[in-house]
């Protein structure tokens, strides 16, 4: 998935590549196309077009939920006088949660925008 503001870097160094197709020809062709970019073949995940689309929406919804959650925590922190930097550090060091998307505000790339929805 490409993020606004870092699309070139995301394309050149993808965390994963999700391809929605049921065509064996497309799978073979796309594997060859992406081979120079992905030295590890496990980064390329093939699935149906429907699953790929729902994967994209699910990832965006999950990140939006994480941003909404941290915004609520930031409001509580402000009310009780807690330090969001300390809270972010404490939450972010939990490997199940991670350090990304723990800053209160509108969120990275404004996830709900049309540009994200149109790029499936």
| Number of helical segments with 4 or more residues | 5
Strand-residue proportion = 5-15%
- The figure for the number of domains is 2
The CATH superfamily of the largest domain is N-(1-d-carboxylethyl)-l-norvaline Dehydrogenase, domain 2
Explain this structure to me?
The protein has about 120 residues and is mainly alpha-helical. It has 2 domains: about 1-45, no CATH class; about 60-120, N-(1-d-carboxylethyl)-l-norvaline Dehydrogenase, domain 2 (Orthogonal Bundle). The protein is about 50% helix and about 5% strand. It is built from 5 helices and 2 strands, in the order αβαβααα. It has helices spanning about 5-10, 25-35, 50-80, 85-90, 115; strands spanning about 15-20, 45. The protein has a two-stranded parallel ribbon. It is elongated, with a radius of gyration of 18 Å.
What's the gist of this structure?
By secondary structure, this protein is mainly alpha-helical.
Q: What are the SSEs and their pairings?
A:
Blueprint (H helix, E strand, L loop, with lengths): L6 H6 L4 E4 L3 H11 L9 E4 L1 H32 L3 H9 L21 H4 L3
Parallel strand pairs: 1-2
List keywords for this structure.
2 strands, mainly alpha, 7% strand, 120 residues, two-stranded parallel ribbon, 5 helices, N-(1-d-carboxylethyl)-l-norvaline Dehydrogenase, domain 2
